[in-house]
Amino acid sequence: MNVRYAVAASSLAITLPLASVSAQSPPSAQTPPPAQSTAPEPAKWSFSLGADPSNFDLHRAPPGMEARMVANLARSWQSAHSRFARHIVLMVGADLPVEAQPGIIGLFGPQCDCPMRVSRRYAGLTAGASFDLFHVSRFTPYVTGGTGIYYYGYRRSPVNASLTPSEVEFYQSVGFAQDYLSLGANGGLGLKVRLGSHDFFFEQMLHSMDLNRRGWAVAPLNVGIRF
């Protein structure tokens, strides 16, 4: 594992919980108590949907569309009058299946001019914290980050209904399915909008799903609601 990524992940995992705890520390003796209670607010749920702008093309060559979509379910805790919040997030996502053009994939392993359909799936269970930068009327920009366990799945399937012996050998060599679990990290920038008792938010996230050298990443632009 790349040392600098390991150090970064360890630092993030240590500093984020400390930051959230420090946000709840009692006021000093010289500071008068606030007029309102600083008791932790009840935990809140949030749900959001997102698409990765770097992998979104409605006019792609056949089969005609490329898209990477994600859904997020989160549980968050934030003390009153504190800019810090803690959260646990479950993220799931997938790419629309795309067709690899004939001849290109034949460069790897046994030769095969057969097209294949490729799909990817993602999931992550992470914990972290966010920090509200400032407040302007109903609008609050924030930064967020966390670490956790990520899943990455890769699926290949032949486009043709029947395969020749050489094509069967090719698919057996490259594998029809691959699944990985790894330690990852995430970070992002968002904007909350307070409407009534709910927060609507927009956020650009980056999930680095493997702190090794594989470089798997998902960067969704999410739109959601906190209730």
Task: Give a summary of the structure in a few sentences.
It is built from two helices and ten strands. The chain is mainly β and 227 residues long.
Describe this structure in words.
- The chain has 227 residues and is mainly beta.
- The protein has a single domain (3-22, 42-226), classed as Porin (Beta Barrel), CATH 2.40.160.
- The protein is 13% helix and 51% strand.
- It contains two helices and ten strands.
- It has helices at 3-22, 165-174, and strands spanning 44-57, 66-77, 84-95, 98-100, 116-132, 139-158, 177-195, 198-208, 217-218, 221-226.
- Strands 1-2-3-5-6-7-8-10 form an eight-stranded antiparallel beta barrel.
- Strand 5 and strand 6 form a beta hairpin.
- Mean pLDDT is 78; it is low at 1-29, 33-37 and 102-108.
Helix fraction bin: 10-25%
Rg measurement, Å? 22 Å
Stretches with pLDDT under 50, minimum 5 residues = 1-29, 33-37, 102-108
Shape: elongated
How confident overall, as mean pLDDT? 78
CATH architecture: Beta Barrel
User: What is the top-level CATH class?
Assistant: Mainly Beta
Kindly estimate the percentage of residues that lie in beta strands according to DSSP.
over 45%
**Structural class estimated from helices and strands:** mainly beta
Total number of distinct structural domains: 1
Q: Total number of helical segments?
A: 2
Widest sheet: strand order?
A: 1-2-3-5-6-7-8-10
